Amino acid sequence: MRDLKVGVGREIITPKIGAVLRGYLPPRKAEAVNDDLTVTAVLFDFCGEQSLLMSATVCLIDLDLIDLVRGRISNETGINEGNIIIAATHTHSGPTLEGQYRDQDYIETVFIPKCVKAAQAALSGLQNAVMGIGTAQSDIGINRRQINEDGSISLGQNPWGYYDPTMTVIAFKTEEGKPLANIIHYCAHCTGAGINKEITRDWPGPMIDRLEKETGAVSMFIAGAEGDVGPRLSNGLTAGKIVTENNVRFDISFALELGAKAAFDAVKAYKSIKDYAKADMQVLAEDIKLPYEPFIPLEKAKEEYEKYPEDATDWNFVYKNHYKGIIEAYETGKSIKTHLILKQTLIKLGSLVFVPFPFEMFVEMTLRLREYSPFQHTLCLSNANGNYSYFPTHDQICRGGYEVTTFKMMNVYPLADDADNDMVSENLRLIKAIKEI
Predict the structure, then answer these.
(1) Are the CB atoms for 42 and 206 separated by under 8 Å?
(2) Euclidean distance between the first and final Cα of the chain, in Å?
(3) What whole-number distance in Å separates Cα of residue 421 and Cα of residue 368?
(4) Does pTM surpass 0.85?
(5) Shortest CA distance to 343 belongs to which of 375, 388, 376, 377?
(6) Each residue's pLDDT tens digit, 241-277
């Protein structure tokens, strides 16, 4: 078999004190730095074809910004734009790269240049590599759609809900045994710190640092399906909140506590690797189609639009903007869209395939993909190559809750309630196709 080459690059992307932190509304400003944020790039080269997997410790990245960064990286490195996956770890304690509070100065002076620089470093450091894959069972995540006594849904811990206990570590070494890079994959929200004022990578930070110290290789975290999965914190919640009789405060120590536990699991997964071997690489970039929900009638959209003030902010702004978009679609006379067309990119490495999603995926979808995938390891990535909103499964729509409301209201064109079936079938089609290449 021909040699797979691997290169790694990393840059610091910590914003300034005072930056608006993304992840909660209303917005809050950073008052301290607990740990530096990073963008880490791992580049793969096989028989002259190259692909890039990048992890940025930020919350969300706008679709247009993803396109811009992929284009810049392609122009500076020659890597095919369609062969690049950029994933956000979804820390709720990082800068705002999308929405109405988007930090354009940070984007132009820090985020884009540092992403390009990390990619260039990975390209210049390419070496022949062997790959090993290890797994461990981890309970640092838990379903966060808590079902209350009255049947309502709130953000908490649901001990009988879906979550994915598998933590995967992919390790790359030179043929002489020198560590090159590690990739950690796990499914859980990065909300351990809660509505804090410190800049932090959240619970994956201590995990990444420990694995790097253990192995001597640059390590990065990529978030799996975390839409309905949160960190299993010792306060019984999925955000680092402390509630007393007269006060509510948020404590970053919950994130650090869980991060230490995650570190043990990551090291355990790494040490479970028994064999390192050469691996081939294939990339498949192809469109997939997901159905939209039919529009509500024009008069109903106007009625709903008028319920919110002209200077609406926060969630009222989201709702008003949703109905405004529907009205404009009707009144401009443009053909109303029936499907979302996603430009999908799959990267296959030996017995493993990376499947990115520009959504906060509910975990059941990715469990289904894994069950029917022909690959031994099928790793789905949330918030990768952009962000539309949450993506709940059909069975959860009727229960409602924050994620379902976001799914319905965040975009002018919401997906159909049963679009999860299309997401699974469309990606299975591509997974089977890349298997045959």
Answers:
(1) no
(2) 15
(3) 10
(4) yes
(5) 388
(6) 887 777 888 899 999 999 999 999 999 999 999 999 9
